[in-house]
Design goal:
8 helices; alpha/beta; FAD/NAD(P)-binding domain; single chain
Length: 414
């Protein structure tokens, strides 16, 4: 089985990448999705707030996904559902399996990785205590409530103030549950400001910053959690313990990009993002294998995912049709003071069209600061920001002319 472009993942990233590859002249495209339907995580995100950047209107997750699904189908792009990719390699060979076709060997001229991310579980953060029922990741609870029609609990506590945790605080309240509070280990929230306002403040749900759960109690079913304030080393402070009687604990404690397939193919991963190191074309360290969306770095808005995936689809098509320019001296991007990471991590100037989009996250909450961009040691751009927070993506756009004869682009908060 041969395809020009194989897209692994049928969520918002994979859909946008496949559609853009088709628009750029590649006809033989296959999207592989392990779930029973296209759309990915968007199908369980029934709240609104999607599409403000891409469509200039407010949509729910399923509405946003449906626009891309309909476009994909209208273009007659092939897709396989309930299909698990078992392996990819540097030669762009894909091994997959499903109940209808059995074992599949697929040769691709280019591969686009769009596998998204998974939630960090209780085991990953090692909360002490017993192991009762009633402890869920926030995404699992969201699927149970929004898609399967189950109410997961009546008295709920939430650990972690990422966007999905905030959204589930509101969702559980609307379902008639009592949300007792949200504890966040850091001194700032990991979610969007709008979600703190709309999901916590509007429902009088307390947010405990610099707090974590120190114990879980319950035989059979969860009955109580204990939280404590933490010091600068994130260790519980004696005498600050609070107990909450509850039957449900939701964990919103971070997302991990799904990169087992990337590692199989020998793709280099970034130690901060946990996703592939990519260049200006969203190409990974393995030629002809591209990546986009949450598999590269965790996004706060699906609109950012779409824009990034359009770039991956466009350059994958260009790679298949005419190849990309190879440069020995790539520009390296470096995250300096106040910046956690920058994507892309490498830049080949010849492949940049007019402008280069760079996405990043800051390490702390800042007010009245600016992003300072340097080419080697020379300041080439300053972007003022009234407010910056780790939960919100930052963007810097550079004109191609600024990249001439540069070895390193660095960005810092000043």
């Amino acid at each position: 089985m041969n395809y020009d472009v194989v897209v692994i993942g049928g969520g918002p990233a994979g859909l946008a990448a496949a559609i853009e590859a088709k628009k750029n002249g590649v006809d033989n495209i296959l999207v592989i999705e392990r779930d029973k339907e296209l759309g990915g995580i968007l199908q369980q995100c029934i709240h609104n707030g999607f599409g403000l950047h891409v469509f200039k209107e407010e949509l729910t997750g399923p509405e946003y996904a449906q626009r891309f699904i309909e476009e994909l189908k209208s273009m007659n792009i092939d897709y396989k559902l309930d299909t698990m990719v078992l392996e990819i390699n540097k030669n762009r060979k894909v091994k997959a399996i499903n109940s209808e076709d059995g074992f599949l060997n697929i040769d691709a001229k280019a591969i686009i990785l769009a596998m998204g991310c998974r939630e960090r579980t209780r085991g990953a953060i090692a909360i002490p205590g017993s192991r009762p029922a009633g402890v869920y990741t926030a995404g699992t609870a969201q699927r149970f409530v929004n898609m399967e029609g189950y109410q997961v609990g009546q008295r709920v506590f939430i650990l972690g103030s990422g966007d999905i945790g905030l959204i589930m605080a509101r969702r559980m309240t609307l379902e008639g549950a009592k949300v007792l509070g949200v504890a966040e280990l850091m001194p700032f929230s990991g979610g969007l400001t709008r979600n703190i306002v709309q999901c916590l403040d509007d429902y009088d749900i307390p947010l405990y910053l610099s707090h974590t759960i120190t114990n879980i109690e319950g035989k059979g079913r969860l009955t109580k959690v204990t939280i404590a304030k933490v010091d600068e080393n994130r260790q519980p402070i004696e005498g600050t313990y609070k107990e909450f009687e509850c039957d449900t604990l939701l964990l919103s404690v971070g997302l991990i990009p799904e990169n087992e397939l990337s590692l199989q193919a020998g793709i280099n991963l970034d130690s901060v993002t946990k996703g592939p190191i990519v260049n200006e074309s969203m190409e990974t360290s393995v030629e002809g294998i591209f990546a986009c969306g949450n598999v590269v770095h965790v996004h706060d808005l699906v609109d950012w995912v779409t824009k990034e995936s359009i770039k991956a689809g466009k350059f994958a098509a260009k790679y298949v049709k005419e190849g990309l320019e190879i440069e020995v001296n790539e520009i390296k991007t470096t995250a300096k003071e106040g910046i956690a990471y920058i994507v892309p991590q490498k830049i080949r100037t010849k492949n940049v069209e007019d402008k280069l989009q760079m996405l990043m996250r800051v390490r702390n909450v800042y007010s009245g600061k600016k992003l300072v961009v340097k080419a080697d040691d020379n300041i080439i751009k300053e972007v003022k920001r009234m407010h910056m927070a780790p939960g919100e993506m930052e963007e810097v756009v550079l004109e191609k002319s600024l990249l001439d004869n540069v070895k390193e682009i660095s960005i810092e908060v000043l």
